[in-house]
Fold:
Amino acid sequence: MAIQLVIVYPILYFAVIRGNPFTYWFRNSPAWITAWGTASSAGTMPVTLKCLQARGVPDTIAKFAIPLGTLVNMDGTAIYLPITVTFLAATQGQVITPGQYVVVFLTSTLASIGTTPIPSASLVLIIMIANSINVQVTGMYGVITAIDWFMDRFRTMVNVTGDLYGAIIVTKITGIRDPIVDADGTIIETIDQDENGKRNSQV
Structure:
């Protein structure tokens, strides 16, 4: 998860935006701090939207990307599940074959997309994925359950960070702007919003 957070996301951001990814990440600290505290992507959604608005992401993108990302963008969970299942197998002396690794990776990816954005939702998924390759869920699963409340906070932080980076990247690629309308609904001007939250009006 640390690699995803400090290497993969920043590289994608820099490749598209050509800006400092860590500056952007720290400016959005209220979102990922809230994610760490609540362990819920859904509970963090209002803060995430507010941060993106402050960064200049158009509402058109933010209000579509964040609810969608909250449901399906579970990068932290997708990384955590295969590691946990591999750990369970190792503690029982079971060797996972290459074919079983493929099954674990595929089921982890699909399960993470379908999981709910609430605390400790992945505990059930661990059992499902372990059973798919005949790994017994025994004693060490209790250890995983005991520390999941803590690990879940890091998974959620990674998930929300992915939403933040994804929204600004989509904004850059699409070039979508928020319009300004008058009381009659007539568009007066559009607002060109960049990744730093600066606004450039075009009448």
Summary: Residues 193-203 have pLDDT under 50 and may be disordered.
